[in-house]
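Section 3.1: Structural characterization of target chains.
Under the original work plan, the team committed to producing a structural model for every single-chain target entering the pipeline before any wet-lab resources were allocated. The record below documents one such target. The sequence was received from the expression subgroup and is listed exactly as submitted; it comprises 278 residues.
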Amino acid sequence: MNVCCKKLVHCSMFSWFFQRKYTDKVLIPPRSLTLTCWVCFFLLCISQIVWAGENRDKLDQFQHAGSAYSMGDYKTAIEEFESLIRTGMSAPLLYNLANSYAQDGQSGKAILNYERALRLTPGDSDIRGNLELLRKEQGLFQEEKSFAQSFVTFLGLNQWTGLAVTAFVLFAAVLLLPASVGLKRIPRFVAATTCLLVTTVSIFAAVGRYQHWHDGVVVVEDARLRVSPFASAASIGTIQEGRVLHMGKEHGNFFLVEDETGRSGWITADAFESIPNF
């Protein structure tokens, strides 16, 4: 009994010595580490203060733009919203900018920014509703979309791409699951087939969206189409402001464009703006 007690006391003394010895060296941080932590904490606090100040300035600017819009000063609202967009893009800012352009009578710029907002949030009914209303008011009637076209435009390019990648990863995971997981043959086949189908449909939809990704909008009144990319070239007609055109190649200060009827020609860069150019 005494031997056991001595061994126990010896072990306890050794453990105390071991912890005391190495605790003093390891757990107590050196002064340099403490100083580094304080510096990082100080910089973090400063960055939070600066970030909060910037957000406050943006909020004040946004409220000023909204007040200008409410009072009918649409040009000031346009300037404020464009200034905010230069510091950070968002669908609400583009939507408010488009509303300001519409109220100011600049239908081309309004349609351009509605289209840009829809690129960020394709399912927003307010943006789509205002866009369709403005087109009707300006006489910009479009052919009724087929089911396939409506399905493709239901999501944006990024959403279709992400869905295709996710479905493909799930398809590969189902195929690579070991038999020990316990998934039966028929459920495995159904899951793999479903993932493969979603992947295929998403890829085709993404390709369809990409084909019109570089479309643009006529932003001036009665823009002229020319037979060649030169100011002296003959005109083949005019394009109404707000019309969406498919953009082809570029030559100097001209873009080769094509409308929904298949008519093509060259238009000056100051009369046409690409939708994704933001």
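The chain has nine helices and seven strands.
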